[in-house]
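Reopening this ticket.

The earlier resolution said the output was attached, but the attachment link was broken on my side. Pasting everything inline this time so it's all in one place.
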Amino acid sequence: MTTAVFPGSFDPLTNGHLDLITRASKIFDHVIVAVGQNTAKRGVFTPAERVAFITTSTQNLANVSVQIESGLTVDFLRDNQATVLIRGLRNSTDFEFEQGIAGMNRSLAPEIETVFLNADPQYQFVSSSLLKEVAQFGGDLSALVPPAVAQGLRDRLERG
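Inline output:
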């Protein structure tokens, strides 16, 4: 059985993320979505809220589970007996960035293989940072995020 991990901050989860999770679930026996905290950014949602959004949005995918991650991603993979690290690529900038991380991960854990999945063209422009900015100004994000996330963003912004 091959277990793969798709790590990210998922703040918020986008339809691009969901597309990659769905596609990975067709390739690997088990996919763990690892919700981490990006220390360089202030989150809109707590890790627990992000886990809830992902769990709700992937409930139709029997081989997908969601966990909170802290520490080194390669340690998380080892702790979960995973051998594949999934990363999504939207463009060449993502590739350059991810290539360096993949090299470091290979140095730390040669038994773990990084697999890059290209973003669906309809989501290549979507980033969580851009979505948060659009949401702040009341833009309609319903085509870009799962329904639970769209509602969560509206609720969070109404509360300030």
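Reporter confirms the inline version is readable. The chain is about 45% helix and 20% strand. The first helix runs from residue 15 to 27.
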